[in-house]
Amino acid sequence: MTQTTAATATPLASAPPDATRVAVSTVIFTIRRDPRTDRMELALPLVRRTRDPHEGLWALPGGWLDVAESLEAAASRTLAETTGLEPSYLEQLYAFGAVDRSPARVVSIVYWALIRADEIPDAGIENTAWFDAASLPRLAFDHNEIVGYALWRLRNKVGYSRIAHGLLADEFTLAELREVYESILGRRLDPANFRRQAENSGTLIPTDRFRTGAHRPARLYRYDQDVELAERGPLSTRH
Amino acid sequence: MTQTTAATATPLASAPPDATRVAVSTVIFTIRRDPRTDRMELALPLVRRTRDPHEGLWALPGGWLDVAESLEAAASRTLAETTGLEPSYLEQLYAFGAVDRSPARVVSIVYWALIRADEIPDAGIENTAWFDAASLPRLAFDHNEIVGYALWRLRNKVGYSRIAHGLLADEFTLAELREVYESILGRRLDPANFRRQAENSGTLIPTDRFRTGAHRPARLYRYDQDVELAERGPLSTRH
């Protein structure tokens, strides 16, 4: 097999260390209610950089790949170290490797996950904060582009899968489900049409419980656990 | 941002070169007719390794990432160097990074593409050959697993997209289209049902031309070019 030798600044002849380094980053989406607008919004945690490059800017949680750990293990470890979050499952999103995305050459393998608001630890962590995905500041490196790609993938998934399940409690009203879809798609949906499509989807099971409160009682639904999460695929286990 | 320093065998204190190296590999699928069975089959090019590790075994086309080229440029370059193939578009498939997938630590960013048989240069290249994707020998590294994952992704795509378009000539009969689907899915499809679904899909345009030969003349169809290739997404351009 013809393999060219990567050009590096290191003059070792055999098995040269590579000038390219591998990092991992993670995009974690949750749904939360914005207290100012009372609307549901997609949010994600960011970490403020305390060193160059891009000191002071916000960045996705992440860090370097250790030579003795798998990509997903590195993503889980750096996510827990920087944010305290430990989602049960991380899916690989994409490998970002543009030559100029960092002062040094860094290939970042990006993972993503959805978590419910009740899975987020109450205690805040220094230099970590949650941001509305729809109105981010300028982030370090190409992290705005990475979040934009994750949002595009999420919007493409929401139409044909149970993606909202990862963001909702086990039981939810159709209005709550619609608000999740609205926050992902970034637009309002007609309540009557949404209700009809959801009831006909074959994936929701009505319970005999209701959400009561300021409004008319609303029936609670749950997802049919027999419907497989087809998008997980053969590589979904840690390896 | 908390970042741990990757453990390496290199004792440089600042900006240490990483013991992890980045490679690229490419899975190229085409459809060809097996002369023994007269059935269409999925095939892919492999390259025989001429050095350790795994000398003598077949492997996916690929090589090392150069520090000054993008991931997709590296995939295109190493594919052309090893097989002579130059598909117009490569899509990122997945990053494989298990710790034990190679004697040294190698993270491989794998790209894939579909090409039509008429896009393959006639002249063979030394140490390169095409293999039936359904009956591969033991490949080097984890390349059997990589091909298996690519096949799984292809089977998931074929149901809701124009994926077969990348494997067929511009005009084709419904029987040819069905054979492409059969070779991807690995099972026979009922001709009458397939014809009905294809005609009702809204993506095929009948032409006024027919394929003639040993059988009854069969109408030629083409894909509606106005239907966007939705799966390309915002990262489809070289970057």
Radius of gyration of chain A: 21 Å
What is the architecture of the largest domain in chain A at the second tier of CATH?
Alpha-Beta Complex
In whole angstroms, the N-to-C terminal distance of chain A is 26 Å
Multimerization status: homodimer
What are the salient characteristics of this protein?
homodimer, 239 residues, alpha+beta, Nucleoside Triphosphate Pyrophosphohydrolase, Arc Repressor Mutant, subunit A, 7-stranded mixed sheet, two-stranded antiparallel sheet, 21% helix, elongated, disordered N terminus, ADP-ribose pyrophosphatase YjhB (NUDIX family) (chains A, B), WHD_NrtR (chains A, B), WH-like_DNA-bd_sf (chains A, B), WH_DNA-bd_sf (chains A, B)
Account of the 3D structure:
Two copies of one chain form a homodimer. Chain A is α+β, with helices and mostly antiparallel strands. Chain A has two domains: 21-158, Nucleoside Triphosphate Pyrophosphohydrolase (Alpha-Beta Complex), CATH 3.90.79; 163-229, Winged helix-like DNA-binding domain superfamily/Winged helix DNA-binding domain (Arc Repressor Mutant, subunit A, Orthogonal Bundle). Chain A has four helices and nine strands; from the N terminus they run E-E-E-E-H-E-E-E-H-H-H-E-E. In chain A, strands 1, 2, 3, 4, 5, 6 and 7 form a seven-stranded mixed beta sheet that branches. The first copy, chain A, is elongated. Chains A and B meet through strand 4, helix 1, strand 5 and helix 2 of A and strand 4, helix 1, strand 5 and helix 2 of B.
